[in-house]
Amino acid sequence: MKQRAKWQSPSNIALVKYWGKKGFQIPSNASISFTLSNCHTTTQLDWQRAESTSFEVYLDGKRNESFEPKIETFFKNIIPLFPDLANYSYTIETTNTFPHSSGIASSASGMSALALCICSLLQQLGKIDTDFYETASNLARIGSGSASRSVYGGLVEWGEHEDYEKSSDQFAIPFKGFHPVFNTYQDTILLVHEGQKSVSSSVGHGLLNDHPFGTQRFEVAEKNMSKIKDILSSGDLDKLVELIESEALMLHGLMMTSTPSFILMLPNTLAIIQKIQTFRKQNDCHIAFTLDAGANVHMLYPEKDIDKAQQLIDTELIGLCSNGKYICDKVGNGPIEIEC
Ligand code: DP6
Q: Which is nearest to 232 in space by CA: 337, 302, 314, 293?
């Protein structure tokens, strides 16, 4: 029997942000994201029966020992759920469509791709007794919270919330019934900073535990999840712009008011934000920004605004990007299993 699995899995961008955990990889609030298309990771997992688990990780064809401890910890965390995984040694070969140094987080696409490969192995062993993607999302969550949302296409919700039927803290669910305008939503990622960010997401999440505004944040996020459900169903783009920009700035406001505090935005992040807001006022369009835990700006807009967005990039934004670089992406259909 084949002892190999291969999956391509995309990154995602959150509209309502996951920031803060209660317990082990349980989100303090529910979140919702767009799955992307062009930014993805392809991972091949090979396994062989062995007395004890061992790992070799290759990035772009080269052994990358610095990733191995993270992978080992991930397996240690999922083996209690699926003890059979302890009976193998693993080789993991992975490539990203976006450069590792681009400042785009690869944990969502990387961890979801690996989780899907592991689910293919578990399926072969007859160990998956719930839904395949639900199991993959659960495993991906254990590797990185936002990765739980990358196992489905379109819009994806993660975290228990009364307005989202069957929502769970353990795994993400696809959000169905959204307005067709979101089938072709665009995300242009303006690269302000290429390279590793100064504070990891895990550290940032931890700082929410004793945060002076933590409780209020979780209440606002809960309400924003209710609001965005209506917005995504009705296609009210004015309200969407307002909500996602507020979420992005709140995320960074929480970073700036933690102890210790930290700032991940750079001067050009702010300059881009201001240019987007001014352009929107003057040009009657729905181009909005969001941020993840870094300096890069995600410019989100509907298909009708593609020409205007390109004009804005060419005339105002390109000079603010690191080496003039940006990545064009859009909402995608989710992971793909690759024949191997
Ligand atoms: C700001 O999923 O990277 O992108 O669970 O510690 O791996 P870990 O954190 P991670 O956090 C992502 C935070 C965010 C918001 C979001 O994607 O919802």
A: 302
